[in-house]
From TrEMBL:
SMART domains recorded: Gln-synt_C (SM01230)
GS beta-grasp domain span: 78-158
UniProt GO cellular component terms: chloroplast
Acyltransferase among keywords: no
E.C. no: 6.3.1.2
Subunit field text: Homooctamer.
Species: Rhynchospora breviuscula
Catalytic activity: L-glutamate + NH4(+) + ATP = L-glutamine + ADP + phosphate + H(+)
Gene Ontology BP terms: glutamine biosynthetic process
The protein, known as: Glutamine synthetase
InterPro entries tied to this protein: Gln_synt_N, Gln_synt_N_sf, Gln_synth/guanido_kin_cat_dom, Gln_synth_cat_dom, Gln_synth_gly_rich_site, Gln_synth_N_conserv_site, Glutamine_Synthetase
Protein family per UniProt: Belongs to the glutamine synthetase family.
Chain coiled-coil ranges: none
MF term (GO), any: ATP binding
Length: 431
């Protein structure tokens, strides 16, 4: 039976816990509610190992029974987990409330509030921040009709607070020029798993380093792949929730993984990425592993973590679209600094020109070149239509900001003819 080494949890006083333990891959079945019926007792036994090591298994078993309880036969009420982005712009917060009956659209849900002074989003003397429900997903942890609700944040007067990036994105995506072009996004979210007590990557020797990069990308084997159960549990949770996840793979640095979401249209791309990040935080929380979206978690000869964003418009996907892509690249080159400043904190540590990145200080593009700012695929060049990949966003980027900025720069913003001519010459672009 395949097994995964999981860091130890904090144990309650008086309960003996093993400092390190081997958890079977079947454990992850207990993290998610199955799509049909109640969990088996077999999955439940695995959960006990994760929850706490205790001789009083009956207590844990009763707790598990309550966690697995299907409320549908007894009440129409559901649990809605309201999710929002905290004061750092990357931290995720959530709290639960009871809703009288199942709903189908966010407009059917009530607004709610929270203490913004405790999240760095409001002063103590005027701390109330209002949550506006914006998107609904199924809850893979509670199952049944229970839901996850992506919200954005406003003052009591109805003004978006500074960390509400969704509001501005929705304005851009609601413009007719953007709507007509049906912008598609495919986002590649990279992340790194860390050991709880040491904050060192999962699978790495404590205080030391594994062998150099090379054997780990898309690898299999206990000495090369660390955290696969977390990746798989997250994959299934996203599918259950209704997130448009399209794939996953192990990354170049050991302990680092990637998943892809898309193609998604407009504002939906940001909603799906934020909900997928929430699910990943919850799963790593249960696994006793720390999730980081730091764009360069380990200094030195190790790959960083990005959030490559694949982008196309209706015109790019149609015959003659390659010329539209080149024009978009021209616009992107002229607004390089605006994009870089919005593409994630600490990105300068990642965009060095090494480890499959371009330098943060200059703009470049190329066909099949992963060392450029913008990559165009061979297939797109051959067919004369398709998409481009913006390789600059960091793993901790805000998807509302990145997706809307791409649409704004390529569909709404216009450069002067002189600036276009100079940029085209510099980039050797014939548009």
């Amino acid at each position: 039976m395949a097994q995964t080494l999981v860091p130890s949890l904090q144990c309650p006083k008086g309960i003996a816990c093993n400092s390190r333990r081997m958890v079977s891959t079947k454990l992850w079945n207990s993290l998610l509610v199955p799509s049909h019926g109640r969990r088996s007792r077999k999955g439940g036994n695995a959960f006990k190992v994760l929850a706490v090591s205790s001789e009083k298994s009956g207590v844990v078993s009763r707790l598990e029974d309550l966690l697995n309880l299907d409320t549908k036969p007894y009440t129409n009420k559901i649990i809605a987990e309201y999710i929002w982005i905290g004061g750092t712009g990357i931290d995720i917060r959530s709290k639960s409330r009871t809703i009288a009956k199942p709903v189908e659209h966010p407009s059917e849900l009530p607004k709610w509030n929270y203490d913004g002074s405790s999240t760095g989003q409001a002063p103590g003397e005027d701390s109330e921040v209002i949550l506006y429900p914006q998107a609904i997903f199924k809850d893979p942890f509670r199952g049944g009709n229970h839901i996850l609700v992506i919200c954005d944040c406003y003052t009591p007067a109805g003004e978006p607070i500074p960390t509400n990036k969704r509001y501005r994105a929705a304005q851009i995506f609601s413009q007719q020029q953007v709507i007509d072009q049906v912008p598609w996004y495919g986002i590649e979210q990279e992340y790194t798993l860390l050991q709880t007590n040491t904050k060192w990557p999962l699978g790495w020797p404590v205080g030391g380093y594994p062998g150099p990069q090379g054997p780990y990308y898309c690898a299999v084997g206990a000495d090369k792949s660390f955290g696969r159960d977390i990746s798989d549990a997250h994959y299934k949770a996203c599918l259950y929730a209704g997130i448009n996840i399209s794939g996953t793979n192990g990354e170049v640095m050991p302990g680092q993984w990637e998943y892809q979401v898309g193609p998604s249209v407009g504002i939906e791309a940001g909603d799906h990425i934020w909900c997928s990040r929430y699910l990943l935080e919850r799963i790593t929380e249960q696994a006793g592993v720390v999730l980081t979206l730091d764009p360069k978690p380990i200094e030195g000869d190790w790959n960083g973590a990005g959030c490559h964003t694949n982008y196309s418009t209706k015109s790019m996907r149609e015959d003659g679209g390659y010329e539209v892509i080149k024009k978009a690249i021209l616009n992107l080159s002229l607004r390089h600094q605006e994009h870089i400043s919005a593409y994630g904190e600490g990105n300068e540590r990642r965009l060095t020109g090494k480890h499959e990145t371009a330098s943060i200080d200059s703009f470049s593009w190329g066909v099949a070149n992963r060392g450029c700012s913008i990559r165009v695929g061979r297939d797109t060049e051959k067919k004369g239509k398709g998409y481009l990949e913006d390789r600059r966003p960091a793993s901790n980027m805000d998807p509302y900001v990145v997706t809307s900025l791409l649409a704004e720069t390529t569909l709404l913003w216009e450069a002067t003819l002189e600036a276009e001519a100079l940029a085209a010459h510099k980039l050797q672009l014939q548009v």
